[in-house]
Amino acid sequence: MRLFRRTCSFSINRFIIVFMFVFVRVLTNNGIRAHVSNLGKGRS
Question: Per the UniProt record, which residue ranges are transmembrane (predicted)?
Answer without folding.
Answer: 12-28
